[in-house]
C-alpha cells in the first residue's frame, strides 16, 4: 500500500472539508459580531413577537366582542357539524337508551326521569337549531365570545412572564396608526445592541394575536366538535407598525447571552483555524504532487477488493458516506454552537477529533470511488455487472420466465400463499373475518395447495427418472398428464429414453459390424497375400520348368491384382466417407453413360448366362455429376448384379425420369440368401456370399452409396425374398 497516495488524498479531503465548512457557515460569521449574526436576529425577533401581543399591540377584547357577527355559512356549518338532524337525534337516543334501560332494571324512577328529561332537552335543542336561525346565531356568538374571553384570560396569565422577558431590553416605540408611544428602560444608556425602525430602515411589525394561543386553543377538543373561525377571522387584520428604537443596555445583558457571545467568538476562531488547516492541506498536497508524483498517482487496488461483488463495494461507499455526513454535521454543529459548559481544552479536543474522523471518512470515500472507476476502465462496467448479485438475481428471474406458463404459475402460487397468510393473520386479529376467509380457503387455497403438491410430486418423478437415466439404467415411461412444463419435460425424457435405447442397440450393432469388418478385411487381404507368399517361395526352386515358372508368375500376377484392387477399393471408400473426395461436376448424359457401362461388361454378361433386360429412353437424360465417379457407381452396381444373380435368370436395368429426378434401377434374383437386415449390405466388406468364395471385395455397394451421397442423390435397396432391387435417384438438369 502506497502511504504517499493515502496521505495525498487525506490532504485533499482535509482541504475539501475546510472549504465546505467555510462556505456553509463560516462566511456568515467571520467578520461580524454576535449581535449581527443570524441566530441573534432570529432570537430578538422572536422575543419582540412574544412581547408585542401583550404589551405593545394588545387586542381590545371587549371591542372585539361588540363587533362580532355571524355569517349564514357559519349557521349551516354549526348545524351540520355533527351530521344531519335525524342523525343527531338518533345519536342522542342511542346514548341514553342503555342508561334508561339500566335505570328501569334497577327500579330507579328518579334517575329514569332525569335521563329522559336530559334526552328530550338535547333533542329539543337539536330541533330548534335546525328550525330557528336566531337561536343558532346566538349560540355561535356565545362560542365566539367564549374564545375571545379565553384569549383575554390567556394574555393576563402570560403577562408576568412577558414582562420578565422585556427587562433585558430598552425601547421607545410609536404606533404609526394610533400615534401611541411605548417606553421601557433608557435607550441612551451604553448599549450592546441597537436597532432603529423608521420609514427608511423599515417599520417594526407586531401582531395583536399570540400564535401560541391559536396552537393551544383552536386545536382543543371542543373546537373539533364545533369548529369556529380562527382569531384572525373573528377580529380581522390585527397587525400594527411601529417606529422607534430598541436597544440592549450593556448592564442588562444576561448571563445566558454572555455565554452565547463567548461561544460565538470561540466559533469564529475555530472557523479561522479550519480555513488555515485547509490552506496547509492544499500546500502539502501540492508539495507531494510536485516531489513524488509517481508515488502519489500509484494507488494499487487490493486483490481482495477486486474480488468483492459490485453491491458490496457500493454499499461500502454508501455506509462510509453516511458516516461522513453524520460526522460532518456533528463537526459543523459543534463549532457553530459551542456552549459555555465546554472549556477551551475540551472544545479543541472535540473539534480536532471530529475533524480527523470526517477527514478519514472522506478519504475512504475518495479512495473507494477511485478504485471503482479504475476497475470500470480496466475491466468494464459489463464485467462488474456480470459478476454482481443483482445481475444474478435478474438472470434467475428471467430464467423463471423462459417458460412463461411456469413463471406465471409460480407467481400465482406465491401471491395466493402470501394472501392466505395475510388473511390468517387478519382472522387471528379479528376472528369475525373467518366468515369471509373460510369460503376463500376452500375455494381458492385448497386447490392451489393441491396443485402445488401435485407439481412437487411430478417434479420428483421426473428427477428420479432423470437420475436413473444418467446412471445408465433404462427406465419405464414417465406418465404426467396435462400441458404443464413438467408434462413436456416428461415427454422429452421418454423420447430421450427411447433414443438411449436405440443408441445402445446401434452401438451393439456397430461393435458387431466392426468385428465382422476386421474379420472380413483380414480374410480378404490374407487370402491373396498367402498365395503370393506361397508361389514366391515356389519360384525360388532351381529345378522348376519354364512352363511351371510361367504358371506361377501368372498366379502371382492375378493375386497381386486382386490385392491391389482390394486396397484401392478400401482406400477409395475411406476417402469418400471422410469427405475428402473432390468432384469435377459437369452436365452429363446419363443415358449414354449407362450404355457405356453396360457395353464395358458385355462379354462378362454373355459369359454369366444372365438375361439383361435394358429399359431406357432414347432421348438424352442430363444431370450435373462427376462423370468418372458416376460411371464407377454404375459399374459397381452392374458388376454386383453379374456376380450375385441366380444363373439362368433375368436382370432388369431401367433408366427413367420421374418428378424431375433421374432414376437408375437394377432388379435381379440373388443366388444367396440376403436375410432381413438390408442396411448391413452397405457395410464395408459385407457380402451376400458369407463363405466369401467369390472374387468380390464387399465394397461395391459401400462405394456406390458414398458416390451417390457426395452428389446429393439417394440410393435405396429393397429386398423381397430373393428379389433384390437397387434404386438410384439424382436431380436432372
Structural class: alpha+beta
Point out poorly predicted stretches: 221-225, 682-697
Total helical segments: 25
- What do the pLDDT scores average to? 79
Shape descriptor: elongated
Largest sheet: 5 strands, antiparallel
Indicate the radius of gyration in whole angstroms.
56 Å
Level of helix content?
55-70%
C-alpha end-to-end distance = 78 Å
Total E-strand runs? 12
Strand percent estimate = 5-15%
InterPro entries: HATPase_C_sf (IPR036890), HATPase_dom (IPR003594), His_kinase_dom (IPR005467), HisK_dim/P_dom (IPR003661), HisK_dim/P_sf (IPR036097), HssS/ArlS-like (IPR050398), Sig_transdc_His_kin-like_C (IPR004358)
Membrane topology: Multi-pass membrane protein
Pfam family, one: HisKA
EC number: 2.7.13.3
What does this structure look like?
The protein has helices spanning 3-24, 38-56, 61-66, 72-79, 85-105, 109-131, 133-165, 211-217, 221-225, 231-235, 255-291, 293-297, 303-306, 310-336, 344-379, 381-386, 389-400, 404-429, 434-470, 485-539, 546-578, 590-600, 602-608, 627-644, 700-710, and strands at residues 170-175, 181-184, 191-197, 204-207, 239-249, 586-589, 611-616, 622-625, 650-658, 661-669, 714-720, 723-731. The protein has 733 residues and is of the alpha+beta class. Strands 1, 2, 3, 4 and 5 form a 5-stranded antiparallel beta sheet that branches. A 5-stranded mixed beta sheet has the order 7-9-10-12-11. Helix 5 runs antiparallel to helix 6 (109-131), helix 14 (310-336) packs antiparallel against helix 15 and helix 21 (546-578) packs parallel to helix 25 (700-710). The longest helix is centred in the C-terminal third of the chain and has 55 residues, at 485-539. The protein is elongated. One of its GO terms (molecular function) is phosphorelay sensor kinase activity.
Amino acid at each position: 500500500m502506497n502511504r504517499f497516495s493515502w496521505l495525498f488524498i487525506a490532504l485533499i479531503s482535509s482541504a475539501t472539508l475546510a472549504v465546505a465548512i467555510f462556505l456553509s457557515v463560516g462566511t456568515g460569521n467571520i467578520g461580524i459580531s454576535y449581535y449581527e449574526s443570524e441566530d441573534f436576529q432570529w432570537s430578538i425577533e422572536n422575543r419582540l413577537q412574544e412581547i408585542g401581543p401583550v404589551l405593545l399591540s394588545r387586542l381590545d377584547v371587549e371591542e372585539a366582542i361588540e363587533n362580532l357577527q355571524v355569517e349564514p355559512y357559519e349557521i349551516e356549518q354549526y348545524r351540520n357539524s355533527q351530521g344531519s338532524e335525524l342523525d343527531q337525534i338518533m345519536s342522542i337516543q342511542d346514548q341514553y337508551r342503555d342508561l334508561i334501560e339500566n335505570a328501569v332494571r334497577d327500579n330507579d324512577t328518579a334517575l329514569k326521569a332525569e335521563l329522559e328529561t336530559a334526552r328530550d332537552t338535547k333533542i329539543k335543542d337539536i330541533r330548534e337549531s335546525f328550525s330557528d336561525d336566531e337561536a343558532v346565531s346566538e349560540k355561535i356568538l356565545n362560542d365566539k365570545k367564549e374564545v375571545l374571553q379565553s384569549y383575554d384570560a390567556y394574555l393576563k396569565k402570560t403577562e408576568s412572564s412577558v414582562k420578565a422577558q422585556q427587562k433585558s431590553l430598552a425601547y421607545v416605540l410609536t404606533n404609526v396608526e394610533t400615534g401611541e408611544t411605548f417606553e421601557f428602560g433608557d435607550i441612551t444608556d451604553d448599549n450592546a445592541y441597537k436597532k432603529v425602525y423608521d420609514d427608511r430602515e423599515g417599520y417594526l411589525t407586531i401582531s395583536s394575536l399570540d400564535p401560541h394561543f391559536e396552537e393551544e386553543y383552536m386545536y382543543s377538543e371542543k373546537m373539533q366538535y364545533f369548529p369556529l373561525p380562527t382569531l384572525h377571522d373573528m377580529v380581522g387584520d390585527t397587525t400594527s407598525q411601529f417606529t422607534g428604537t430598541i436597544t440592549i443596555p450593556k448592564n442588562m445583558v444576561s448571563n445566558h447571552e454572555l455565554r452565547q457571545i463567548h461561544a460565538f467568538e470561540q466559533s469564529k476562531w475555530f472557523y479561522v483555524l479550519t480555513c488555515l488547516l485547509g490552506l496547509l492541506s492544499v500546500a502539502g498536497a501540492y508539495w507531494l504532487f510536485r516531489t513524488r508524483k509517481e508515488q502519489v498517482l500509484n494507488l494499487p487496488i487490493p486483490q481482495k477488493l477486486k474480488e468483492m461483488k459490485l453491491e458490496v463495494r457500493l454499499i461500502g461507499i454508501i455506509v462510509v458516506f453516511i458516516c461522513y455526513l453524520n460526522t460532518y454535521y456533528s463537526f459543523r454543529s459543534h463549532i457553530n454552537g459551542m456552549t459555555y459548559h465546554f472549556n477551551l481544552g475540551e472544545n479543541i479536543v472535540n473539534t480536532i477529533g471530529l475533524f480527523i474522523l470526517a477527514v478519514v471518512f472522506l478519504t475512504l470515500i475518495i479512495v473507494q470511488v477511485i478504485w471503482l472507476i479504475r476497475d470500470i476502465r480496466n475491466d468494464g462496467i459489463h464485467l462488474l455487472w456480470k459478476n454482481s448479485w443483482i445481475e444474478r438475481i435478474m438472470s434467475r428471474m428471467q430464467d423463471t420466465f423462459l417458460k412463461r406458463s411456469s413463471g406465471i404459475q409460480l407467481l400465482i402460487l406465491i401471491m395466493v400463499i402470501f394472501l392466505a397468510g395475510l388473511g390468517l393473520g387478519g382472522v387471528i386479529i379479528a376472528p369475525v373475518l373467518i366468515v369471509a376467509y373460510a369460503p376463500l380457503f376452500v375455494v381458492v387455497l385448497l386447490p392451489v395447495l393441491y396443485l402445488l403438491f401435485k407439481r412437487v410430486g411430478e417434479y420428483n418423478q421426473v428427477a428420479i427418472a432423470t437420475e436413473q437415466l444418467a446412471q445408465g439404467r433404462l427406465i419405464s415411461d414417465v406418465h404426467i398428464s396435462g400441458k404443464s412444463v413438467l408434462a413436456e419435460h416428461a415427454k422429452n425424457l421418454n423420447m430421450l429414453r427411447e433414443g438411449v435405447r436405440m443408441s445402445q442397440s446401434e452401438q451393439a450393432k456397430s461393435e458387431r459390424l466392426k468385428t465382422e469388418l476386421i474379420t472380413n478385411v483380414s480374410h480378404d487381404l490374407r487370402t491373396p497375400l498367402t498365395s503370393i507368399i506361397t508361389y514366391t517361395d515356389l519360384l525360388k526352386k532351381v529345378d522348376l520348368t519354364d512352363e511351371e515358372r510361367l504358371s506361377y508368375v501368372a498366379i502371382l500376377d492375378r493375386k497381386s491384382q486382386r490385392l491391389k484392387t482390394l486396397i484401392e477399393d478400401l482406400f477409395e471408400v475411406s476417402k469418400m466417407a471422410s469427405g475428402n473426395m473432390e468432384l469435377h461436376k459437369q452436365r452429363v448424359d446419363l443415358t449414354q453413360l449407362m450404355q457405356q457401362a453396360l457395353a464395358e461388361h458385355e462379354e462378362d454378361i454373355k459369359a454369366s448366362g444372365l438375361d439383361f433386360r435394358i429399359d431406357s429412353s432414347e432421348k438424352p437424360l442430363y444431370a450435373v455429376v462427376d462423370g468418372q465417379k458416376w460411371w464407377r457407381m454404375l459399374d459397381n452396381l452392374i458388376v454386383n448384379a453379374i456376380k450375385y444373380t441366380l444363373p439362368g435368370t433375368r436382370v432388369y436395368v431401367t433408366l427413367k425420369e420421374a418428378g424431375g429426378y433421374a432414376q437408375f434401377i437394377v432388379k435381379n434374383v440373388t443366388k444367396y440368401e440376403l436375410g432381413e437386415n438390408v442396411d448391413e449390405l452397405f457395410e464395408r466388406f459385407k457380402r451376400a456370399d458369407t463363405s466369401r468364395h467369390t472374387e468380390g471385395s464387399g465394397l461395391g455397394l459401400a462405394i456406390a452409396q458414398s458416390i451417390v451421397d457426395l452428389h446429393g442423390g439417394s440410393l435405396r435397396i429393397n429386398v423381397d425374398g430373393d428379389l433384390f432391387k437397387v434404386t438410384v435417384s439424382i436431380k436432372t438438369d
